[in-house]
Amino acid sequence: MKKVYQKPFRHYLLEDAQSLNPLMEAIGDSRVVMLGEASHGTSEYYTWRTAISKRLIQEKGFNFIAVEGDWPDSFLVNRYVKGYSDGSNTVHKLLQNFNRWPTWMWGNWEVAALVEWLKENNQTKPVSKKIGFYGLDVYSLWESLEEILSYVEAKDPELVTAARKVVNCFEPFNNDPEEYARAVAFVPQDCEEEVLDLLTRIREKAAALDKENEAQFSTEQNALVTVNAEKYYRAMVKGGSNSWNVRDEHMVETLNRLLQFHGPEAKAIIWEHNTHIGDARFTDMARSRMLNVGQLVREQHGRDKVFAVGFGSYKGSVIAGKSWGAPMQKMDVPEAQRGSWEHFLHEISPEDKLILSKDLKHVPELRDTIGHRAIGVVYDPKTERFGNYVPSVVPERYDAFMFIDETEALHPLHTPLATNAPPDLYPWTF
Length: 430
Description:
Blueprint: E1 12-13, H1 21-27, E2 32-35, H2 43-60, E3 64-67, H3 71-81, H4 91-95, H5 109-122, E4 132-135, H6 141-155, H7 160-170, H8 177-184, H9 192-208, H10 214-238, H11 242-262, E5 268-271, H12 274-277, H13 293-301, E6 306-320, E7 329-333, H14 341-348, E8 353-356, E9 370-373, E10 389-392, H15 394-397, E11 400-407
Parallel strand pairs: 2-5, 2-6, 3-4, 3-5, 6-11
Antiparallel strand pairs: 1-8, 6-7, 8-11, 9-10
Helix pairs in contact: 6-7, 6-10, 7-9, 8-10, 9-10, 10-11
InterPro entries: Emycin_Estase (IPR007815), Hydrolase/PRTase-associated (IPR052036), UCP036794_erythomycin (IPR014622)
GO biological process, one term: response to antibiotic
Pfam families: Erythro_esteras
């Protein structure tokens, strides 16, 4: 890695929630604030994102948090924090619904603390003002189908036939996305027509309602997940960057639907990995024709209305797996590679700090490409130098950066893994 600029520049020490004042000022009247993380298993990334989210909700009127999680499981959290009955009387039981690997990503005590705060904060608010919690991801093909069928059987018998037609199409593949994807990847016989027809029918029903309610919105969203998940799994088997793009395009489409649902003045907080929220145009992802949430949201909403915060650390520990589907374990995160963004920030001072990208305009060396560490749910500390550093123009990729010199692994709930194990051919682990 190349040597980077060594002279200090303006930064702010991170000690408590009041240390975020410069960040709140820089965010201004942004409509979408994207909060990243350099891994899915680091405690401080979750706790600092919680601190930022609380201030955004209390001081700037943000309406919901949207995370890199599946829609059905996250919607149960949404119902819980808004005080609706969902069968879960404790946050521990609630978060055990995130029972597909990696279970620790949302089933952890750090998220439990956020969820309990949201529930308490919502208690005195009218229904229209309660803060929501939603999932942006695309993986939940069968779970979303089950939610659709359950809803239409109870609420809309006219749609039962269309829903059962989709279920019957997927049934021969034993609820296994890998089996379905491999079977239909190179032949025209698939379930695309059936899922598109179901989505169309559900949307027609929604358009006929005098006032769309959240349950109906969720049913339509599950239909959208089914459409895009079917597309995602087919693309995944064929390889290349298309499956990544399908996934991130789905997440942005979901975000836009949520903003529209909450009204023209709605504001959103996004929790996702740096690799999703940091603008892909300022990384080597662009060479592979990969786009991401950060790029698309900036393009669609305007850079002046979007604020992206990256996260990273110099060393510490993390929860991850040695391979996809492997048991989670606490791993050491070694000192950052010399010449990387994280190593440079440590060399400036071994303190937790906030950096605003606008303060780096006078440092041309830092506006060049620098290696920036990214740890996925699959991780091996011994080989991280071969694939865990993303070449990035950091001040353009993010609007601000939160640096934690030494981090600790998050605290999982140890949720029992679901019997329908995830496929092992995911090309991306972020």
